[in-house]
Amino acid sequence: MSTNDTDPLEAVRTRLEDEIPDDLVVSRVAYEGPKLVVYTETPKKFAERDGLIRRLASILRKRITVRPAAGVQLDPAEAKGKILSLIPDDAGITNLEFYPATGEVLIEAEKPGLVIGRRASTLREITQEVGWTPEVLRTPPMESSTVDNVRNFLMQERDDRRDFLERVGQEIHREPDGDTEWVRVTTLGCCREVGRAAFVLSTPETRVLIDCGDKPGAEGEVPYLQVPEANPIADLDAVVLTHAHLDHSALLPLLFKYGYDGPIYTTEPTRDLMGLLQLDYLDVAAKEGRTPPYASEMVREELKHTITVDYGDVTDIAPDIKLTFHNAGHILGSAVTHFHIGDGFHNVVFSGDIHHTDTRLFNGAANDFPRVETLVMESTYGRRDDYQTDQDDSERNLIELIGETAANDGTVVIPAFAVGRSQELMLVLEEAMREGKLPTMPIYLDGMIREATAIHTAYPEFLRDGLRDRILHDEENPFLAEQFQQVDGGQEMREDVAGGEPCVILSTSGMVTGGPIMSWLELLGGDPDNRLIFVGYQAQGTLGRRIQSGRREIPFSDRGGRSEQLTLRLDVQSVSGFSGHADRQGLEDFVGTMNPRPEEVICVHGDEASTDQFSSGLYQEFGMRTYAPRNLETFRFD
Amino acid sequence: MSTNDTDPLEAVRTRLEDEIPDDLVVSRVAYEGPKLVVYTETPKKFAERDGLIRRLASILRKRITVRPAAGVQLDPAEAKGKILSLIPDDAGITNLEFYPATGEVLIEAEKPGLVIGRRASTLREITQEVGWTPEVLRTPPMESSTVDNVRNFLMQERDDRRDFLERVGQEIHREPDGDTEWVRVTTLGCCREVGRAAFVLSTPETRVLIDCGDKPGAEGEVPYLQVPEANPIADLDAVVLTHAHLDHSALLPLLFKYGYDGPIYTTEPTRDLMGLLQLDYLDVAAKEGRTPPYASEMVREELKHTITVDYGDVTDIAPDIKLTFHNAGHILGSAVTHFHIGDGFHNVVFSGDIHHTDTRLFNGAANDFPRVETLVMESTYGRRDDYQTDQDDSERNLIELIGETAANDGTVVIPAFAVGRSQELMLVLEEAMREGKLPTMPIYLDGMIREATAIHTAYPEFLRDGLRDRILHDEENPFLAEQFQQVDGGQEMREDVAGGEPCVILSTSGMVTGGPIMSWLELLGGDPDNRLIFVGYQAQGTLGRRIQSGRREIPFSDRGGRSEQLTLRLDVQSVSGFSGHADRQGLEDFVGTMNPRPEEVICVHGDEASTDQFSSGLYQEFGMRTYAPRNLETFRFD
Ligand SMILES: [Zn+2]
Ligand SMILES: [Zn+2]
Ligand SMILES: [Zn+2]
Ligand SMILES: [Zn+2]
Ligand SMILES: [Zn+2]
Predict the structure, then answer these.
(1) CA closest to A634 among chain B residues
(2) Each residue of A99-155: pLDDT tens digit?
(3) Of B146, B454, B172, the residue nearest B303 (C-alpha)
(4) DSSP character string of A486-540
(5) Chain B partners within 8 Å of A635 (Cβ)
(6) Which end of chain A has the smaller Cβ count within 10 Å, N or C?
(7) How far is B235 from chain A (nearest CA, A)?
(8) How far is the CA of B215 from the centre of ligand 5 (A)?
């Protein structure tokens, strides 16, 4: 090292001090992942200078957070009293913790809005009065063990995480080696198939992995992580997760087994949901006698390395790459992911999975960007004839089918993903019963549906406006309606339910690849008065797809583990229009109304016919370059 | 290692012994690159069993060579007498060397055919009489320092090479890890441009680099060797060179600087030509004050690692890849390269540079293969309007232009690649003068043209039938015609020539990017009676292309190294039809008559318009999938 080398962070501090008035004192600067944290002994003066932080952020081209330096904080006991006096009682504070190492105080409350105050006025008051920086979390209106566990775990790992975030920050803000001369995308999975989403986005400086999922119905088919573009895994600069579904997230923990030690960027709800789904994934593998690809310890590693980013926050994830998440309308926390590369050199958007129009749960997917040249686009319903019924018609149809079954004393069973479609159906059924379109009857939630629903209530900001407000008022929270009953009594309870009054059962797995839905088919499948209703996409190779296509003899393991055949006699129906995915028209509209219009579209996440037909459709409709690649191909943009 | 592990070569030997009659004795088996060498104490008995070796080769699926074991050889002095008595005097033996380590005797002769005898009868006799295995080389009819140097160097390195070949053989014949599930091709250069040819062909088991050239007129633009698909360079399994031109070979020695220690497969003439051109490349770089990318030591490393393969010999280069070279008709030793991958899984052909129809020097490119699904195809003259004149018309045209200039007391200067076009022109001019269509006048060869010509005469088997015969008879060898004069007197001689009688000058470099052609332009460029005739492709960015496009003011460095402008007043003409490349029609015919027809064609080695237009032309004409990729893209086949 030459003697001219200075600590780059020291250089940032010098630069910062040059820019601020002399009466502001900076005691320390530190990276916390993408953010630069400025510790000051004069926090009030910082706060008084209107626009100073914004100006510094723009000069240094970094996100900046100012916190009072150690030593200016009140003693925690005293601070606690002060804080409680500043926050209205209605806020419902459930937890208050002080972290001397960073000068932060964590405030968990049922109504975080009241903690924050109008235009964050209460937060500012707290900082100025007690010298601690408040961090506010919502206490979920429905208790969620996932949310609790994740938060507790992260609190417990707080010191380790601080070191991790500092290391990541230094990597992000390193001097780049040179200009961006090219951008490449390599497909490690998810091409001409639905499943094992995984893409490498690379530049001469940086390698980012986007998603790392499994393939439902084809356990052996995992992303091609062994190819040179992804290796060494340990040297990847960042991992980005578009949403929690297992076909995007299942194998992320594996990266840590392979030595990865860097950040995973995703939204806050996705972080919690992926943990829930991955632990269940391990559970299912164990129950089916398969060797899980990683231990649950790796899920904790992954959580420890997760950096959450809100929709709309432009975030540096490498010297030459800025990431921005946008609402995708598909499931809670799902993101359309925008990469701005090399200071105006190129912009790539990964759609992830999207729903183009508004649903009961979410606003439609965002498709408005400062710039976009390349779009990597899902094509689940990309065939020419993949048009779904209107949601209104679908709802009427579903309600009619359920009403009919109930009138015949039958029971309706609906295989559903725990995350997304279940909550949408709960909203439909709750409304229909409230408005008298359906007789009120029990709706049993089996598998992780209740838990997933609780997570939704922890992040109402990610839901549609009207729904958010209803969730925040207990008496109107549709998810708390009495008819929703958790199946928490195991097989015995299922037998009781199956032998009892007409009801509706929502059960995982959504593609009938295992889970409690298997028990329900066994208990209810023999009676022609019962009804099985598919409401979501059934991937090729799954039992759900086979039943949907007419198969009625299905393999079954009895209690003793022997394999039997079960003949389904119940009525089988499919109701489209509830998918979390855009249909062909929605996909086309998403691309066609995208602003600006991308120059090239890479169609993935659909079977061969879907990606092919969607790709040529887009070309014919809009004249852009389109591709339906195979796995293991690399595109280069410049 | 478990105790069950056996030496794989020992296993091969056991297998071999199971297959042969008991009276045949195998004393040792060893790999020599792709070949399995069987040393036997009973060589005569091996030779007597008709078809045994062929049968063994087919059972073991390896190329097999049988050599007498150590101990069965006569003493060299005695053997030498015996050998000389078996070979007719006419053969013109110039060298005879014994290699006890392998039991081989090297015989260099002016007429190798007489050493070999009818159906190799003389060779067999030698083996049986003296116990040494003869290896026969042709003594070139024109002395070539390159051929001499390469052969001497390889003889001197013979022991090292034996170890190297054994190591390579073990790698080639290792047990593969599993089935071939995919084949990929990554473009490291040569896309939408002419130059820096470099491709990675990879399978789950193997990575092969094909070509590694520079880009004429753009020294900084080298193949993207730094991308993951090519790294670590040291772990590449094999390198294959299609032909010696620098846009394919210039940077091969660099691989050894980066730690590569494996084989380079190419034809024998390409091995010699590439050495010649690379050393000149270093020379030019030094003269122009650029830092050469590697030292000449690396060229020696490369030679030491080169394994030559004849046209038509199917050669294992990895457990899952077989390589076969075919005549490409472009320059001496140039090869259309066929890869058979994974036991019938996929077949990829790299055209390299081709000439589709016969020329004076070569037969047209081969396009008949057992199987081919994917073709990586040159597109130099791929534009819709890239039609060249018939060679007959071109020759008439050229002869007329030269005759006219001579009649006006002017001199003709023709920039030409040392390798290929120069020899073609020599044949045209020699014939025209012999037949009286042109007055006989001196034809000066400047740069490495004479040396390159001598190399052609060392490998007449690679030339067209009629030409081969003429070369083998001194009195008819067109390259030995009196009017051909080597410029071996430096600048002084050039000044004399320029001030003297009308003549023709063939000089490198072929694209006027440096070399003696610069001096000729300086000496002859000011006189409007002189003529500059372009006969070859001029790449974008080269001075040749700029002059061809009408530019007459050209930059020049005088002796003192200062930069000056030179104004060209001589007449500038272009005569098409002499290119070493197929024209648009030839390219189309090559693909259209290929047997079998490839399913997809990747168009490279042409500027953007050429690759684009050729790619859409092929699609429209033949309906196959076609691509005009960018550098750094990866295709996957399966
Ligand atoms: Zn999804
Ligand atoms: Zn998905
Ligand atoms: Zn999906
Ligand atoms: Zn060439
Ligand atoms: Zn070339």
Answers:
(1) B634
(2) 888 889 999 999 898 999 888 889 888 988 898 999 999 988 899 999 999 999 999
(3) B146
(4) E--SHHHHHHHHHTSS--EEEES-TTSSSSTHHHHHHHHTT-TTSEEEE-S---T
(5) 633
(6) N
(7) 12
(8) 9
Chain B residues at the A interface, defined by Cβ less than 8 Å, are 182, 184, 186, 202, 204, 226, 228-229, 231, 630-636, 638
Measured distance between the N- and C-terminal CA atoms of chain B, rounded to whole angstroms: 35
Q: Using alpha carbons, list the distances in angstroms from residue B248 to A348, A406, A622, B154.
A: 33, 75, 40, 23
- ipTM beyond 0.85? no
Binning pLDDT at 50, 70 and 90, where does residue A3 land?
A: very low
Instruction: Render pLDDT for B525-571 as a digit per residue (tens, 0 to 9).
Output: 999 999 999 998 898 889 999 999 999 998 876 655 667 788 999 99
Q: What is the pLDDT of residues B43-76, one digit of tens each?
A: 888 878 878 888 888 888 888 988 888 888 999 9
Interval between CA B600 and ligand 3 midpoint (Å) = 32
Q: Which of B227, B231, B604 to mutate to test the interface with A (most CBs of A within 10 A)?
A: B227
With an 8 Å Cβ cutoff, are B633 and A635 in contact?
Answer: yes
> Per-residue confidence at A475, pLDDT binned at 50, 70, 90?
confident
- Looking at this protein, which amino acid is placed at residue A136? V
CB A374 within 8 A of CB A349: yes
Of A158, A154, A99, residue with least CA distance to A131: A99
**Residue B112 CA: distances (Å) to CA of B140, B141, B170:** 10, 12, 32
Helix (H) or strand (E) holding A245: none
Best residue in A632, A637, A638 to probe B by mutation, most B CBs within 10 Å? Answer: A632
Q: Is A634 in contact with B182 (Cβ distance < 8 A)?
A: no
- Going along chain B from its start, the domains and CATH numbers come out as 8-68 (3.30.300.230), 76-139 (3.30.300.20), 151-384+581-637 (3.60.15.10), 391-574 (3.40.50.10890)
Ligand nearest to the CA of B580: 4
How many whole angstroms separate alpha carbon A57 and alpha carbon A53?
6
Taking each helix axis from N to C end, the angle separating B449-458 and B268-287, rounded to the nearest 10 degrees, works out to 170
**3-state SS assignment for residue B322:** strand
SS3 state at B131: coil
Give the ligand at the shortest distance from the Cα of B243. 4
Of A540, A541, B154, A546, give the one whose Cα is nearest residue A532. A546
